[in-house]
Write the C-alpha cells for this entry.
Amino acid sequence: MKEKIQELRSIVINELKNINDLSSLDKLRVRYLGKKGEFTKILRGMGALSKEERPVIGKLVNEVREELEKRIDVIKVKLENEVKNDKLKKEKIDITLPGDKISFGHRHPLIQVVEELENVFSKMGFQIVEGPEVETVYNNFDALNSPENHPSRDKSDTFYITEDILLRTHTSPVQIRTMKEKKPPFKIVSAGRTFRFDDVDDTHSPMFHQLEGLVVDKNITMANLKHTIDMFIKELFGEEMKTRFRPHYFPFTEPSAEVDVSCLSCKGEGCEECNGTGWSMELLGCGMVHPKVLKNCEIDPDEYSGFAFGLGVDRIAMVKYGINNIRLLFENDMRFLNQF
Ligand code: FA5
C-alpha cells in the first residue's frame, strides 16, 4: 500500500511538470485529490488493512495529499499570474491612437434667450435678482392688489400646494419681495419658471418662463416705461422692430398695457405668419406700479412711482427663432435643439 501511495505521488508530480493551464490543473486535482479521486479510493480500501497498519497508511495518505495540494497551489498561483500578465500585455494602451470624440452639449434655447435678455437689461443698468417658484398666495396675489374674486386665483387656474402656498403664476411676486427687501430707488429684472392650469396649444404651455422688470424711483413715468420696452425690443430684434402698446387691465399696475412687436417675417407688412396683421403674438404685459402695491410694501406712493413689466420668455424665443409651436421648446427633441 505504501508503495502504491508513493507511486501515485510520483505520477502526480510528473504530470504536474507538463501542466500549462489552469483548466488542466483543475482536472488533475479532481482526478487524484477530488472526492472520487485516486487517493479517496485508497482510503476506501483501508478496511482490508490490519489495525496497526491503518493509522500508519492513513497518516501517509494525508501527508502526501497535503504535499500535493501545496504543489498544486504553487502552480496555480504561477499560472494565474501568467494569465494576468498576458492580459496586461494585451491591454497595453497605445497613446498614439486618436481619442474618442466627446460631443459637447449646449444651453437650451430658452436659457440662451434668458441670458441674452439679462445681458440687455444689465447694460441698461438693471440688477438681476432671483425669486422662488413656490410662492405664498400673499406675494402672488394679495400684495399685488389682486381682488379676492379674480379668476386667476381659482383652483382651476392655479396649482395650489396648500391654501396659502402655490406654484407662482407669474414672476410679479418678485416685485413684492424686492420692494420689501430694498429701499428705492431700484431697477431689477428676474427670470424664471411660472405655472398655470393653461391648456397646451401652439402659444400656451402650463409651465412657461417669464422675465419680470421693476423700476421704482422718484418721477418715474409711463414715458420711461415705453422708452425702456422700445429700447430692449430694438436691442433684441433689431432697429426696425416696432412695438404696439394696447390698453389692458392688471390689478397691480395702473395704467396697464399689453405689448406686441411687429412680425419678424414681414416686418409689419402683413404675411401668412402673422395672419396679415403685421404683428406677432402678445409678448408682455406692463404698466405703472399701482399705488396700493407700493403701499403694501411700505413705499410712499406720493414720493415714489414705478413701472413694471412681465415678458413671456418662451414667446420671445419663438419670435426670435421663428418657432411656430411652443411644444417644441419642451419636447427635448435633439433634432430641434441641435439647431441652436
Ligand atoms: C402677467 O403675467 C403679468 N404678471 C405681467 C405684468 C408684469 C404686467 C408686471 C404688468 C406689470 P400675462 O398673464 O399677460 O401677464 O403674462 C405675461 C406674458 O407671459 C404674456 O404676454 C405671454 O407672453 C406669457 N404667457 C402667459 N401665459 C402663457 C402660457 N400659458 N404659455 C406661454 N406664455 C405665456
About this structure: The first helix runs from residue 2 to 17. The two ends are 88 Å apart (CA to CA).
